[in-house]
Amino acid sequence: MNRIRFAFFLTVSLLSFISQRSFAQTSLTPATPWGSWLIGTLQLPGGEKKWGGFAEVQARSNGVMQQFFYHELKGGVSYDIDRNFTLTLAGGHYATYDYQALADGPLNSEKRFWEQLIINQYLSRVKFEHRYRIEQRWFTYRDGSHPFRNRIRYRLNTFVPLNNRTITDKTAFLSVYDEVFLNPVGPTFERNRFYAGAGYQLDKNWIIQIGWVNQTNYSPATFERGVFTPQAASGKNNIVLGLTYRISRRSGNQEKLPSQPD
Question: Which keywords has UniProt assigned to this entry (predicted)?
Fold first, then answer.
């Protein structure tokens, strides 16, 4: 079995394993309509210059390209310790609306700041990205309350270029990731996000990606007045469309994984 077939087999196997887990989570609740996520990203790679950064805008809809109810505006700075290790400090503003009453303003808004470590592994054609993130979150609800929460996230992202050994100009690739969201106060397991998609790097600047993401939120088990209510899950499938523009640097042509900052 040559390396291309091996990489393809490994990716399909990983996709099959995690998607079965994801569908099992979603099946705990009735089927929900498909939604959509639109993501636009501007990146400044670190590379030999070490320092980099990003800015991103995102919009989400309850239906496919309709009933928009949520947006994100975020950005940050990064530092490449070397090819395999990157540190990031970033923040953003998030707002959730009732899509049937957008003029009434957000149901809640959030200011978020996070610290992040990314570890990359380059194994021939298969590339792995391990992302560790700690978030501080300040909320403002319509009723005037202002709670604060912390959250921990871990994402394992796999990339497989299809027509080149590295992800560079004119390269098609597959991307699969699974991310867990943990609440240090409890309940511990808060959310799971699974993504599978394909992308194409046109040149050193432009990257397009399209995929599917399943996001499942968990509510804790409760015991009140002698009645036990087990943990519940609510999942939703979404189409993801992403467009990334990388600002060119004169020096350095090393491979940079087309990771989504979200």
Answer: Signal
